[in-house]
């Protein structure tokens, strides 16, 4: 189904909407109120786009059809579009006279999760992952929400150029879930082939606030992350004669416990830090001692020095546990250079500026402070490499009554990376569109 194909007409409805029409109505009851005339008109098309994206998710580095859909949406709005930037990356440039440049980024990839929401538009997609395994695929992190909001904001801005001056660079980024897409786009000349930004802007949904609200984090917002693999080598043998072998399962099991002492005994209690062992692979049969055991870890913190200390401590502990068992071969500790990210830092001055502006346009009660996340993102790469202020706004995604009931019961609604992740789509999308469009307009206000 074509989406937004009739949005921009020289003599159509959107050409008649000025910035005054968008912002002239005082906030009433919803975060999308300043953009309500436009959003009411385009929302059915946005909803169709969202459901299409949700039904047809694609894994990291496989976002070919998703990227084509994003490129088509931007072209219909009159943007200058370039595809296949850093893989399946999409860049759309919207120029409107002299002024600063704002980069607006969305991520596009999905996760290897079997959807269990029961929604009528639930994904049934099955695909081959990078390791060759067949897996179900789901937009379980809200990238479909992000993309739809991104397209909606582009529609608002393209239709209402009287309210801003400058350039907006819309970036559709692949491979966020494996922390590779941002670096790939930057390596492919994102900052030299296209207008260099003065500000970088993005959104990410969250179940920590209700739909209709926007959360603001000032300073560190998402944790630095490293993926670490450890292979412990032993000496295989019969399970009935363990004294004749060196059991790598026992060595790895001891290491799993000892690794937890890094955070509890080596990192300051005032510094957030995480060491999680996510997988433990060993053996083929109950009465066979294997030759090796493998662990996969995720390591997270908010400071580079803390992150480095934890990585060094992991290697030290792995070697010490092997030495204690008297193994002949040291463990192999590998830090994946691809699946890594630095901390995402929201520029404090930019956070204050947009927080104040969004409270005026979206309503005081709909813009709230929110705690940093221990999840990781590669969004921060854009502002870091460009050396410009950046911010990723948090977008509430839980139906408000459901959120209130869960909070009263001391529970939490399903969050990202879970099979039951199901945003309150209309309220969330409308707020996402409004937050992005209002933020860009604030940063590109015409000179008085």
Automatic annotation (TrEMBL):
Domain Peptidase M20 dimerisation: 227-322
Signal peptide feature range: 1-30
Entry superkingdom: Bacteria
UniProt cross-references to Gene3D superfamilies, sorted A to Z: 3.30.70.360, Zn peptidases
Record has Plastid as a keyword: no
The keyword Hydrolase appears for this protein: yes
Pfam families the record matches: M20_dimer (PF07687), Peptidase_M20 (PF01546)
UniProt keyword terms in alphabetical order: Hydrolase, Signal
PANTHER family the record matches: METALLOPEPTIDASE, PUTATIVE (AFU_ORTHOLOGUE AFUA_6G09600)-RELATED, PEPTIDASE M20 FAMILY MEMBER
Designated name of the protein: Amidohydrolase
């Amino acid at each position: 189904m074509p989406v937004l194909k009739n949005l921009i007409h020289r003599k159509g409805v959107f050409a008649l909407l000025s910035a005054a029409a968008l912002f002239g109505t005082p906030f009433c009851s919803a975060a999308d109120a300043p953009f309500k005339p436009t959003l009411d008109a385009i929302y059915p098309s946005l909803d169709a786009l969202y459901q299409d994206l949700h039904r047809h998710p694609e894994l990291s580095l496989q976002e070919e059809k998703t990227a084509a859909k994003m490129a088509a949406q931007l072209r219909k709005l009159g943007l200058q579009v370039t595809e296949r930037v850093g893989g399946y990356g999409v860049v759309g440039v919207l120029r409107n006279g002299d002024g600063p440049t704002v980069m607006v980024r969305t991520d596009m990839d999905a996760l290897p999760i079997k959807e269990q929401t029961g929604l009528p538009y639930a994904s049934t997609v099955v695909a081959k992952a990078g390791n060759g395994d067949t897996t179900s695929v789901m937009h379980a992190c809200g990238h479909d929400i992000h993309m739809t909001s991104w397209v909606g904001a582009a529609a608002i801005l393209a239709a209402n150029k009287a309210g801003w001056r400058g350039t907006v660079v819309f970036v559709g980024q692949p491979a966020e879930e494996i922390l590779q897409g941002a670096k790939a786009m930057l390596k492919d000349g994102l900052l030299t082939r296209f207008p260099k930004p003065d500000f970088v802007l993005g959104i990410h949904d969250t179940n920590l606030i209700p739909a209709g609200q926007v959360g603001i984090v000032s300073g560190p917002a998402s944790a630095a992350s490293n993926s670490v693999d450890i292979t412990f080598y032993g000496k295989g043998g019969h399970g009935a004669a363990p004294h004749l072998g060196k059991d790598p399962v026992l060595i790895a099991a001891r290491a799993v416990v000892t690794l937890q002492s890094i955070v509890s005994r080596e990192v300051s209690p005032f510094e957030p830090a995480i060491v999680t062992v996510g997988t433990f692979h060993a053996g083929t049969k109950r009465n066979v001692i294997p030759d090796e055991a493998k662990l996969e870890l995720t390591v997270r913190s908010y400071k580079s020095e803390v992150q480095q200390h934890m990585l060094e401590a992991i290697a030290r502990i792995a070697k010490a546990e092997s030495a204690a068992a008297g193994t002949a071969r040291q463990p192999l500790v590998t830090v994946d250079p691809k699946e890594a990210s630095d901390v995402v830092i929201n520029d404090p001055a930019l956070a204050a500026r947009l927080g104040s502006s969004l409270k005026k346009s979206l309503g005081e009660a709909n813009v709230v402070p929110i705690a940093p996340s221990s999840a990781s993102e590669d969004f921060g790469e854009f502002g870091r490499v460009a050396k410009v202020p950046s911010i990723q706004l948090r977008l509430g995604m839980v139906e408000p009554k459901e959120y209130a009931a869960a909070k009263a019961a001391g529970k939490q609604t399903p969050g990202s990376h879970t099979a039951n992740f199901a945003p309150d789509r209309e309220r969330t999308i409308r707020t996402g569109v409004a937050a992005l469009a209002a933020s860009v307009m604030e940063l590109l206000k015409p000179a008085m």
